[in-house]
């Protein structure tokens, strides 16, 4: 899919990094709606971003398909038919390829090319973007559309490279797939990717051992084809659906209950939660009791309901107790959706090992060894160990702003942004669904569309003012960082060692990275800032010089 570089402009109005949901819509917005020149660089060999790399067995969206796509174009929304409630990664990639073809986007995308650096030239008020293929492109604007979960985390286990069998990470899965038939497989990790992959790996492997450090709260997906009557009703309510998800708390058609768990009896809680459990999806998490996010006693009532459901699904009581999460509240992590995960542990060839009490000491040439000396032999090891989330993908790029300052050094103690979109000292640089925006606490396409639209408005304002640069003031950024920290303090989110907190990456500062304003209120805040003359942004009054 790569187009020869000699046909590409080396000077453009904007460079976009990444060709997933964010990059595709940003390119369409800049080029087709604003008349700007733009280039997109994508490290993968095709479209999809996260979905290009994550091809492990069972990889699929945890958002309902009818809202896991673009809504900016009604005809586009209507013409694509999803086959299931939660689309698999291959169908999501096909959808994005359809979007690219429909808007003729691929001609401005360079594939198999990783952006290695972006340096701001203060004299010319422009950026120079460099790639691993030796190309340098000058641009007025740089937009990172790198995704929140695109930097795979592979722990530094002693002896990791000594293993003589097959090794795979769920985040960079072989495109040709992996055949586990008749093999002894070890899976390290029990996060969302493991929850999706384990039931399918279990169907092929002769023996499967899962190494769990922290049990997750897992809710049934109840995936399958969408009934025709439901699909037709949704097609008749495009405007209503779009408005509701944009104004919602989480980008879903889910509303929190007015009555809290603390005010409810155990019977009332069961009657509220059981239909949500049977329906599947995020209803128990994002559509039930608001007080469970703030009060541990309220949270415990919901936890107890979930613990009972795990005991019902898992036949062996000892295994069920291992699979019951302990030590943190429900809802403060993005809970995975289950399609046969618990049931897999009822199979005689599937085993669960607790590595919190007995950690992995080393990877050996034939498998792995635990701290107490217990050894396991495998033909294949799968690392389902997640990502360096949110800041990781951005920090991989050598981004230098005013005075040559590195963005990753500025963020050394945690991200510092205004609206999760911009950072002081880095003019004309935008981070789509970056840290300190709702981002991963939402249905991502809804937040992506809002951020892309906001970037376009800001760039349009730069042009209308005849300015050359825009960036947040230090005061606005400082206030947003404080605001972000204050929002999370009354909640239980900081009680868990989650990737929201960066806790899965050794040495990463323990800072809550998403913004808890939530989707609708955050959108309203951004609109208010625009209405107030782009409050908190500083526009350089100088004229734009030509990029030569």
Short structural summary:
The protein is of the alpha/beta class.
| Average of pLDDT | 95
Number of helices: 17
Could you give the count of β-strands?
Answer: 20
- Tell me the strand percentage band: 15-25%
CATH architecture of the largest domain: 3-Layer(bba) Sandwich
User: Helix share of residues?
Assistant: 25-40%
Can you tell me the number of structural domains? 2
* The CATH homology group name of the largest domain: FAD/NAD(P)-binding domain
Q: Supply the helix-strand structural class.
A: alpha/beta
End-to-end separation in angstroms reads 29 Å
What are the low-pLDDT stretches, counting only 5+ consecutive residues below 50? 1-6
Q: What's the assembly state of these chains? A: single chain
Quote the CATH topology of the largest domain. Answer: FAD/NAD(P)-binding domain
Radius of gyration: 24 Å
Largest sheet: 8 strands, mixed
Could you explain the architecture of this structure?
The chain has helices spanning 21-33, 50-53, 74-79, 89-102, 192-204, 228-235, 238-247, 266-279, 283-286, 296-313, 317-323, 341-344, 391-395, 407-410, 444-465, 474-488, 519-531, and strands at 11-17, 38-41, 109-110, 115-121, 126-131, 136-144, 166-169, 184-188, 207-212, 219-220, 337-338, 350-354, 360-364, 367-370, 375-377, 380-383, 398-400, 429-431, 470-472, 537-539. With 548 residues, the chain is α/β, with parallel strands linked by helices. It folds into two domains: 5-151 and 389-539, FAD/NAD(P)-binding domain (3-Layer(bba) Sandwich), CATH 3.50.50.60; 160-383, no CATH class. The strands form five sheets. Strands 1, 2, 3, 4, 5, 6, 17 and 18 form an eight-stranded mixed β-sheet that branches. The chain has a five-stranded parallel β-sheet with strand order 7-16-8-9-12, covered by helices on one side. Strands 13-14-15 form a three-stranded antiparallel β-sheet, with no helix packed on it. α1 (21-33) packs parallel to α15 (444-465) and α15 (444-465) packs parallel to α17 (519-531). It starts with 10 loop residues before the first strand and ends in a 9-residue tail after the last strand. Residues 1-6 have low confidence and may be disordered.
